[in-house]
Amino acid sequence: MLFSSIEFLYYFLPIVIALYFIVPARGKNLVLLVMSLVFYGWGEPRFLLLMAVQVLSGWVFGLLIEKYRGTAASRAMLIAALAVGLGGLGYFKYADFFVSNVNGLFGAAIPLPRVALPIGISFYTFQILSYDIDLYRGKTELQRSLLNFAAYVTLFPQLIAGPIVRYADVARELSGREHSVKKFAEGARRFVVGLGKKVLIANVLGELADVCRTSTEKSVLLAWLYIIAYAFHIYFDFSGYSDMAVGLGKIFGFEFLENFDYPYISKSITEFWRRWHKSLSSWFRDYVYIPLGGNRVKPTRHVFNILVVWFLTGFWHGAGWNFIAWGGYFAALLLIEKFVLGKVLERLPAFASHIYLAVLVLFGWALFDAPSIPEALRRIGMMFGSGASSLYGASSLYYLRSYAIPLALAIVGSTPLITRLARALEKRAERIITVLEPLAVAALLVVITAYLVDGSFNPFIYFRF
User: Fold this and answer.
1) Same domain? 30 vs 139
2) Dihedrals φ, ψ of 390, to 5°?
3) What is the pTM of this model?
4) Active site residue 354
5) Mean pLDDT over each residue of the chain, to the nearest integer
6) HSE-up of 293 (CA within 13 Å, CB side)?
7) Is the preceding omega at residue 163 within 30 degrees of 0, hence cis?
């Protein structure tokens, strides 16, 4: 079930909210658990058992880690928890990839398992592992209630596309959380804004990226139009989903950490990755990079640590060599910035730094979206005239004119400008804003609903991860 669907907005969500606020406090987690399972099972009923096994194993291993704390057995239980969690993720996400590569490398003919990828498995696996690891490290307390632990893992606002919520960040709220009309209103507003980003910008620019990708015209303008549309599509798609998750969290009393901080205004690749998908970056930092030694090691080891983290980051996103190359690409850029360009970038004018960041990130998205590395290189080459028959053509000019408004909205919306203007207006005309804001949110919801009823392009990119 998609957040951006009529079924979710006008059937599922109202029922969940009604049930949630009708039941007493002790029953709220049960409502969330049951309805989260309904939400997930709506599209993936056959994988409910897999999720249940992962949840139960994570909880049981937590009990055993705590029981044998301070002994070798506790460490053994953590290793077992990692093996079960990562083993399940590895099989369902990467089995076909490994078999096909073994066949290609050794000329074997091993049949492909043809394993279907459960939606959201990368996200909920990392959440379960963060609990067991933090418990072993003594950074969080044991959750003795299976109900509360299952509610944490399956919580539908962030279940299938993040952000990756760590148990330690919501442990207190699982036991008891505050609700208020103000918090509910803030959550509803954030949800609708995120929904607007998804439906009115991401979906529209996703259509543009698709038509440019499949067009027979071979022009430089079309190549740039495609990758710019895709860059904004993936940003507004994923950040819109994160906004909706944060908003729904507030409605139900949870405070999820922010996942995006206007990454496209960055002046370096290093800064970009501090702002993009922050929950994933911080997960790899705390559970892979720092345990490997971080930057408190010899330079050669430091380089190795960064390469390992970015290999895993790329591979986490998908079972394909283009994703591994994408991770390696950003690892190389981060290393170059750290050891070569750091001081140079600091002295560059702001506009030059932004251009530097934008071009390199666009190359990265070309690699990310391509079905293969050669195809990615072909698309990047086309941006600079290689294989192009012209600078522009009738199709590219038509698409540019047709999508000029959503592209302009995307450019402005990817900066803090609108947020700053809204805050300034709120300070100067608080009473007026208090009245107009609910009306604006309602009007936005009406427009979004009209788009959804029309049945337009509406996938979520990160569902495949």
Assistant:
1) yes
2) -165, 165
3) 0.93
4) no
5) 92
6) 14
7) yes
